[in-house]
Amino acid sequence: MIQLVGVIGGGLMGSGIAEVCARSGLDVVVIEVSPEAARTAEARIRGSLEKAHSRGKLSDDDLAATLARIVVTEDIVALADRDLVVEAASEHEQTKLELFAKVGALLEKDDAILASNTSSIPIVKLGAVSGRTGNVLGVHFFNPAPVMKLVELIPSLTTSIESMERMRTFVSDVLGKKPIEATDRAGFVVNSLLVPYLLSAIRMYEAGYASAADIDQGMTLGCGHPMGPLALSDLIGLDTVRAIGVSLYDEFKEPLYSPPPILERMVDAGLLGKKSGHGFYPYEVAR
Ligand code: NAD
User: Fold this and answer.
1) Of 110, 143, 185, 264, which has the fewest CB atoms closer than 10 Å, so is most exposed?
2) 240 CA → ligand 1 middle, Å
3) Of the residues 12, 97, 151, 271, which should be mutated to test ligand 1's pocket, given the most ligand atoms within 8 Å of the CB?
4) What is the pLDDT of residue 284?
5) Which stretches in the chain have pLDDT values below 70?
6) Exposure letters 191-208 (e unless 16+ CB within 10 A, then b)
């Protein structure tokens, strides 16, 4: 039974995954890089739960109980007793390799599952450094995690059938999400289709075809998409979109996956989209 969950990284995705798990009645430990980052993550989780409470989706008692199930700390040793750890740190291969090596050695239970929310880094590489390859797989949530129903499950060549089946049951029966299975190729199903589309829209904007607002309106009103590609890039985070494009390009060498220069410059400038307060559009940043 998976009851004790760890989440590494309390950013956009990690805080949402922690919320989903705690709202499903699980005990959750979130690991961040520093006390300050831990405080920010805690405030992000609290803010999201309070929003759900103010919209009547969570009772007073449930809000208090859910918050009480979540601990945010910078002490990675707090992961030792977990049944499942979901790594949702920044999309940076070296960071994830170091985390998998460290946490793989730290976990006390032989059958503990170590999963990554990576959008594009090969799961097999993360498994290889963890010392527990059979129990490592990709579990790719979508943003915002408390709202989006889909979870991609990615077994690597070395993931055991038992770990895959445990996660499939956990994701559907405990978290109430809809799992689909994808092979261990950069981008899995959704980002392989989505990211070249986002990068094409950014190239279009860069070339001056149309304004950001008109490109987005073209796709919302013309194609019935709930959000245009530039607003969606801002929501995902431009650093994350760039990183996924780089991984896809590394894997397939297709020019359409290569991040356009304007995206590189925006990331260099710290214009990361909604999370930083500015991307293709300005935003108010939640602190
Ligand atoms: P983010 O930048 O919002 O958050 C990343 C967090 O990880 C930060 O708070 C950072 O402090 C923390 N972190 C970095 N190194 C760490 C370490 N060594 N230990 C603990 N924490 C660490 O990024 P995000 O959007 O939440 O993305 C996280 C992961 O989820 C990435 O792998 C990304 O590809 C994936 N993902 C992102 C989206 C999206 O829409 N943004 C969707 C699905 C999956």
Assistant:
1) 110
2) 8
3) 12
4) 87
5) 286-287
6) bbebbbebbebbbbbeee
Which residues, judged by CB distance below 6 Å to any ligand atom, belong to the binding site of ligand 1? Answer: 8-14, 31-33, 37, 88-91, 95, 99, 117-119, 140-143, 236-237, 240, 275
How far, in Å, CA of 234 to CA of 116, rounded?
22
Distance, CA of 221 to chain centre:
28
Rounded Cα distance between 260 and 255, Å, is 10
Correct CATH for 4-181 of 1.20.1250.20, 3.40.50.720, 3.40.50.300, 3.30.70.920: 3.40.50.720
Residue closest to 274 by CA, chosen among 243, 226, 247, 240: 240
Fold classification of 190-268 is: N-(1-d-carboxylethyl)-l-norvaline Dehydrogenase; domain 2 (1.10.1040)
Q: How far apart are the C-alpha atoms of 31 and 262, rounded to whole Å?
A: 33
